[in-house]
Write a structure and sequence with these properties.
Lysozyme; mainly alpha; Muramoyl-pentapeptide Carboxypeptidase, domain 2; elongated
Length: about 600
């Protein structure tokens, strides 16, 4: 980088930098990278207690593994990290199954426990509410406070055949682990670099002092011992500046970059509590964010059985291709950011070695080349920071979960029920009550879908809470024990209570069947009473699809768990292309901008 400035201007500029940096609080290596006290807990999803006394290093590996598996699902549902307030630190009453042995955790009282409980239940984790925090037991031990979820521990969960929440398919979790390894390498390299700078510092300071003495002596000797006071002041200021820079070199590097990260975060709309800096200083977070954005599409494909997969083969292949391109590109982004950091620290280490030579006029070329490289490396990292901040802001609220939210429930399919995507569990309720009344569940679901779902099973109950449209209270109905009674007296509130409406509808349908409806079509016709000439054909169409296991036409647009529409596929492709575009900017743009600026810095 060629910079031709007069000595006075350069000295003034460097003095201004020193003044500004002296006003910024210093950052240690741990402050710069963070997460040192979390042990094996993924910093993308966990926060240690604010007083930094919580011992998470000695928590059992099985506990760490379970929490790392649960945390992504909690983060997806709430957008919040899990705050751990208690681990294996002293102060808890010791027991073989307690905190001291690493088998219990305390979580902050702000935890959304209703979201977390179903996840913990699958692992057999017991939970207690102690008022100011939640107590979790992973080994079958007791919990403090009010027990809100019983459990037999990890071993009990495994014995019961529970494997915990479904992991992301196709080893995406392993990809996240690789991202963590990238961050780990970066942190270790930075730590080694800081240690190397510390070891070199005394030697370079002594060399600087020696060269300063030589330079000062040569100036006096060559001038015939006739030194102008102004020259002495300039020399002393120059020596003082280089000594200050050399003495605070590691802080100088961190000050500059952390300060810029904060400015970039403010410019792109981050609040004071936002953790944008971690998106840059912990590059695996970018990889993990990209993986979470494409995870719903992969889970959609994972939910398909063989028939559904074959019928959606074209869309599935496209999703696979774009998903794995995103994974590959963001893996390269994480590696690239790591290399940018390594380059910065290598330059810093080389500059602390060469900086002392800059005091001598005839040897300053030694440091000029390395200083130019440091400026280049710093500018590159600054540009990366700007692009990462733009990408992070662009995708912080982005989600494709809505596009792929309807996934097949394998358990319901095995029981002969279509997947209920409406969220009210009406399909399962209708099936259960129909079985109690001895009515064909498929016929009951078909009638309900036509009555209040417009012929779509995911819309059952969307038009009216009287799901079965039992219109009057004086008609006959038949109870499960065969008793014939009045529907209004047997089921009060059926017009406003969905469950009671289903019970009343089943009783009426049972009565129609008993009165001579020898076929599903005849039962549907009698149930309707002949008001709609197309009613029976509508019901029979749904009934036939349910009986044949072909549910593809029974869902509203974009909510069919058995298919991927062209519209959804196009949206997903566009989403992946935007992700890839930002990754391409991060990988290509910094070098394109820096390339014309190559060269050295001319020192005074």
């Amino acid at each position: 980088m060629d910079i031709s400035l007069k000595k006075t201007w350069l000295v003034s500029l460097l003095t201004l930098f020193v003044t500004i940096f002296s006003l910024i609080p210093s950052f240690s290596s741990a402050d710069f990278f963070g997460g040192a006290r979390l042990g094996g807990f993924n910093p993308a999803y966990f926060i240690g207690h604010e007083d930094n006394t919580t011992d998470l290093i000695h928590v059992q590996p099985a506990v760490v593994s379970v929490m790392n598996a649960i945390a992504p699902y909690y983060y997806q549902a709430t957008g919040e990290k899990i705050i751990i307030t208690g681990g294996a630190e002293p102060g808890h009453a010791y027991s073989p199954l307690g905190h001291g042995a690493g088998w219990k955790l305390d979580l902050a009282s702000t935890t959304n426990i209703q979201v977390l409980l179903p996840l913990l239940q699958q692992y057999g984790i017991a939970v207690g509410n102690e008022g100011n925090h939640y107590d979790l037991s992973f080994a079958g031990g007791g919990v403090g406070g009010t027990q809100i979820l019983a459990g037999s521990g990890i071993a009990g969960a495994k014995a019961a055949g529970l494997g915990g929440p479904k992991e992301t398919p196709w080893d995406v979790q392993a990809m996240m682990g690789m991202g963590n390894n990238i961050s780990k390498v970066m942190k270790e390299f930075a730590g080694y670099s800081v240690k190397a700078l510390g070891n070199l510092h005394p030697l370079m300071m002594n060399l600087l002092i020696a060269l300063c003495i030589i330079d000062f002596t040569m100036m006096i000797t060559l001038s015939g011992f006739k030194v102008v006071p102004q020259d002495i002041v300039v020399k002393v200021a120059k020596y003082g500046f280089f000594m200050y820079v050399l003495d605070n070199w590691d802080k100088f590097i961190n000050w500059f970059f952390i300060g810029f990260v904060k400015v970039a975060g403010a410019l792109f709309g981050y609040s004071a509590t936002a953790d944008f800096s971690k998106d840059v200083t912990t590059p695996q977070l970018l990889l993990q964010k990209a993986l979470h954005l494409i995870e719903p599409a992969l889970n959609k494909l994972a939910s398909f059985g063989a028939t559904d997969f074959i019928s959606n083969l074209g869309a599935a292949l496209v999703i696979y291709v774009f998903s794995f391109i995103v994974i590959a590109v963001f893996t390269l982004v994480a590696l690239y950011i790591m290399l940018c950091y390594c380059e910065l620290y290598i330059s810093a280490a080389m500059n602390i070695v060469t900086l002392p030579f800059s005091v001598l006029h005839w040897s300053k070329f030694v440091s000029e080349g390395m200083l130019g490289h440091l400026v280049t490396a710093t500018l590159k990292l600054v540009i990366v920071t700007v692009i990462v901040s733009m990408a992070t802001v662009a995708f912080k609220d982005a989600t494709v979960a809505d596009m792929f939210s309807a996934t097949v429930n394998a358990q319901q399919e095995m029981q002969g029920m279509p997947t209920d995507t409406g969220g009210n569990n009406y399909v399962a309720t209708i099936t259960q009550i129909a079985q109690q009344y001895g009515v064909d569940p498929n016929l009951a679901i078909a009638i309900a879908s036509v009555e209040t779902g417009g012929g779509k099973i995911d819309d059952i109950g969307s038009a009216d809470t009287n799901i079965m449209q039992v219109l009057n209270g004086d008609q006959d109905c038949t109870l499960p024990d065969g008793t014939v009674t009045n529907v209004g007296s047997a089921f009060p509130g059926f017009e406003t209570n969905p469950t009671v409406s289903i019970q009343a509808g089943m009783a009426v349908l049972k009565n129609k069947i008993n009165s001579g409806a020898t076929s599903p079509a005849a039962a549907a016709e009698r149930y309707n009473g002949g008001g709609d000439p197309d009613y029976v054909s509508k019901v029979m169409k749904v009934y036939a699809a349910l009986g044949g296991g072909d549910y593809s036409a029974l869902y509203s647009a974009n909510r069919n768990p058995h298919s991927i529409s062209t519209e959804v596929l196009c949206k997903y492709i566009l989403f992946c292309l935007v992700l890839i575009f930002f990754a391409f900017l991060i990988l290509k743009l910094p070098n394109r901008i820096i390339k014309p600026l190559g060269g050295s810095v001319e020192l005074p």
